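Q: Could you fold this chain for me?
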Amino acid sequence: MTRRSRPTPRPPVAVLILLALLLPLIAACGGAAASSQMAAVPTHPPVEAAPGSIAAAPTAPPAAAPMAAEKPAGAPAADAAVVAPVVAPEAAAPVAMSAAATAAPAAASGIVAQPTPPAPAPGGQQYSPLKAGEIDDNGDFATYLDYLRSYSGAPAHPVDVSERYILTVTDARQQPVLDARVRLFDGQQQIFEGRTYAGGKTIVFPRALGISENAARLRVLIEKGNSRAEGTLDRGQDATQSFVLRGAEALPQTPRLDVLFLLDSTGSMGDEIARIQQTIASIAERIDQIQPRPQLRFGLVAYRDRGDDYVTRVYDFVPDVAAFREVLLGISAGGGGDEPESLNEALHAAVERVQWAEDAVRLTFLVADAPPHLDYAQDYDYVSEARAAVAKGIKIYSIAASNSGDEAEYVFRQLAQQTLGRFIFLTYQPGQNAGAPGDTTTHHVDPQAFSVERLDDLVVQVVRRELAEAQGVA
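A: Sure. Below is the predicted structure, expressed as structure tokens.
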């Protein structure tokens, strides 16, 4: 019997059409997967991001990407960490988003990103701006004398400022004369020298200079350029006396302004040095925008203590605010250990080791939290350096940072009062002298005698006030 073979069943036409459509898609997906696997193989060994840095997506092929950031001019020694700029609160969210989105690509590309900004405060919020108050111990001199008499902190260098004279020099049009040389004589012996600050003023303390009580009249000699005037200072009379220097130029056509920041960079400043640096940078940028713009320069002296990596680092004046910012943000906090620091030597560097401009408004902002060492052999003396500052017409504004104790306050107020500056202090939450900014202080000042402002606003106001006084419009 013959067996009949069955015909091979054919797939339905619809199935054939479906396969024809799917096969190209399957082939494409397989090729993409293979390409993806090939691309995942690194062609360069990955470079680990530096600690504390944010990885960023590459913007150029890996071969063109820099492997390490170039060290800025004037940066600290290799063992000192460079502090990154603080991000403004309004920029915090975009930065956080960018970091999360680009971390993975950067790990594969091997690109090292710029250092991350300092960590946000607890709760994920950016640090609040520093706040501060200001008092004028020469403006409320009686209260200041009471403070000196009641002081019971660690010993400092007492200076008898109870007899005080503020001398004002004007031209024939009653405009204040800046940078006039003022000398006082007891007989033929010169016993004082100063340069007039903004407003044409200088300050004299006869008892601190050791002048005999019998010297009831002191000869005053005032000079600027080719102009010269003489007068007398009668002791026991009005504490404010004026002199006319005829023919003297009151102020250059374009005022000159030198601003030096004297910054304590010891480890105790580490809790807020990044915020202080960013605040100073903001201050410099805002001063640079003052109109009409003076001939403006910025300088910096950073200091620590003996036995640290350095005692002082001096950066002379520059007119470029960007260059100043780069140097400023390269300073890190470290060293120290005991509370006092080498403030004596730092003051000497600020007065003598930078090139102050002639015929200029000269301002030093001391930012610190500790008093000077008074126990070092062969050291400078902060009282003598204050007198040298008066002789050069350098005004000191002291800014007390967090955890400034009684001795630091005493010295800082001395430096400001004896150079016709003012005492500025950071303010915090009630009962605190560190931590979150607030509206109170533990310093020995009348709460009704100051208002609280942002530190950058306050310092810019100081500079504007100094320029206005120099021009005779304050």
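A (continued): The first strand starts at residue 131 and ends at 135.
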